[in-house]
Design brief:
Elements: H1 2-11, H2 25-34, H3 40-53, H4 57-65, H5 68-76, H6 81-95, H7 98-102, H8 104-109, H9 113-120, H10 123-129, H11 133-142, H12 146-162, H13 165-168, H14 172-179, H15 185-198, H16 202-210, H17 214-220, H18 226-239, H19 243-251, H20 255-261, H21 267-280, H22 284-291, H23 294-301, H24 308-322
Protein name: Radial spoke head 14 homolog
Organism: Cynoglossus semilaevis
InterPro entries: ARM-like, ARM-type_fold, Armadillo, RSP14
Length: 325
């Protein structure tokens, strides 16, 4: 019957791959993903079907035991953005279940640290990894190998950029502060980036002040690495929004250092410096110090400045410095 066969065909969901019966379902879908000749549509469909199956705790067992973590590294490098997004969703479902969280020690203990770091670069991936922040911090505290610390701090930074509160609730500021003192410049750079992310919410600013982080951050301003400097200035920029942050920064005499760093002509660093100086100018003591440097800032605010963003930021700084009640 032609109409009957047409109806059956129409009922087939083209967004999902066919699923084998029973315990063969998960392994079969992984086989599809692992075949080099599998085209993008088949990869997408297999991932959608896997996500459907991950609502069953027994399927999560199968997925983890079947090598899902290792396969993530391949899928996260896929040229297709939809495949990468669906991979993030898959891990999110696994980590969101109690059984999936049971495996978080294994996830952090194997070579998939690089996979996690790559995954955390995507908003959906960072969201999936938020459930692993407690174990991530534990590993960071225990880990001695420099390369692994860099990966863990980078992953923490991406996750905290999305939502810093889980890490802040576990005293991450104190732990990351220790890493700011590490002998490795790479570790210090990633620690400063993580501290920047942690200092964005109000609770993070409060903890940065309470844990005496700013003296260590100011010390990083003397680093040769521009990224270390930029991350450190960003911590100052965010923390100085609070009254306590302003007072601590001014006590540490950061204004001359920020003015000097602004000359380095690296856009991110210059923008952070200008915004930090603008925030410090809101305090009477900061405004007094910056009034002495007004000609320099006015020069940066002139039309001659090639970068429009920098020019506008400098103009804002000048307005705040020269404001009178």
């Amino acid at each position: 019957d032609t109409s009957s066969s047409g109806t059956n065909a129409a009922m087939v969901d083209q967004t999902r791959a066919p699923i084998a019966f029973g315990r063969r379902a998960v392994p079969q879908l992984f086989e599809v993903l692992q075949l080099p000749e599998t085209d993008v549509m088949h990869r997408r469909r297999a991932l959608v079907s896997l996500c459907d199956l991950m609502h069953d705790p027994q399927r999560i067992h199968q997925a983890v035991d079947g090598g899902v973590l290792e396969q993530l590294e391949v899928l996260l490098k896929d040229e297709d953005a939809t495949v990468r997004k669906q991979t993030c969703e898959l891990l999110h479902l696994i980590c969101g279940h109690n059984i999936g969280r049971y495996y978080n020690t294994a996830i952090l203990g194997c070579s998939t640290r690089q996979v996690m770091n790559r995954l955390a670069m995507l908003p959906a991936g960072a969201k999936a990894l938020l459930a692993l922040v407690p174990k991530l911090l534990t590993k960071l505290e225990e880990e001695e190998e420099e390369e692994v610390q860099v990966l863990l701090l980078s992953t923490l930074s991406f996750c905290s950029t999305l939502d810093a509160l889980p890490a802040l609730a576990l005293d991450a500021v104190s732990l990351v502060r220790q890493k700011l003192l590490h002998s490795s410049q790479d570790v210090r750079r990633e620690a400063a980036a993580a501290m920047m992310a942690l200092s964005v919410p109000e609770e993070g600013k409060r903890r940065v002040c309470k844990e005496a982080v700013l003296p260590e951050v100011v010390r990083l301003l003397q680093e040769a690495d521009v990224k270390v400097q930029a991350n450190a200035v960003a911590v100052i920029m965010y923390t100085a929004i609070t009254t306590e942050g302003k007072m601590q920064c001014l006590d540490l005499d950061v204004v001359p250092v920020l003015l000097d760093l602004k000359r380095r002509r690296r856009k991110a660093l210059v923008m952070y410096c200008l915004r930090a100086l603008t925030t410090l100018a809101e305090a009477p003591r900061g405004r007094h110090l910056l009034m002495e440097q007004l000609p320099l800032l006015e020069k940066w605010s002139e039309v001659a400045e090639k970068d429009e963003d920098i020019r506008r930021a400098a103009q804002t700084a000048v307005r705040v410095i020269t404001w009178a009640p």
